Each structure stands twice: as C-alpha cells, then as structure tokens.
Amino acid sequence: MRLINNVCKEIIIMAQLFEQHVEKELKSMDQRLYDLEEKMNSIDSKLTQVVDAILGNPLTKSGGFVEEIKDLKSKIVVLETKVQEQEDFKKKFIWGISFIIAIGAFIQYLLNLYSKIK
Which one of 8, 45, 69, 118 is separated from 87 by 20 to 30 angstroms, measured CA to CA? Predict the structure, then answer.
C-alpha cells in the first residue's frame, strides 16, 4: 500500500511539474504572440505611412509623391514650351541678322561696282 501511495504521490508531483511546465510554455507563447502582434502593428503603421507618402492622404489633403510627379510633369511641359519658344526666337533673330548682313554686303558690292564704273 505504501508503494502504491508513493507511486501516486510521484504521479501527482510529476503531473504538477508537467502542469507548471505547460503553464510556463503557455505564458512564453502568449508573450511571443503579444510581441508578434506589436511588430505587426508597427509594420502596419509604417506601411500606412509609406502608402500615404506615395499616394497621399485624403484626410490631411496631402497629395503624396504621385501628386508631386503630376505637378512636375506639368512644369516640365511649361518649361519645354518656353525653351522651344526661345529657340524659335533665336533662330528668327539669327536669320534676321544674317539677312541684314547679306543686304549690307550686297549694298557694299553695288557701291564698289558703282565706284569702279565712275
């Protein structure tokens, strides 16, 4: 009987040790789960910030990079038209000066020819 009693006590002690071990493991798993949830929340908030930076946030009325790119494209179009207008003006100016010089050279030629004839 004593042997059975000792065996029962040992089984109870082993069951208590197993229960403590399981409890410790569950607490450890719970803590790891909590840490993972915190990390996921952090990643989610960072991802939200990235999306807001790229696409903009309607609540804060910020356009994000996409809106800035659209603005830059419109500014580039304006600059390209201005550069084209300046190049056209430059070409017209050069042709005008060339025409004036050609007329002057022709008049000089006519004056030299006239002076030789006289």
Answer: 69
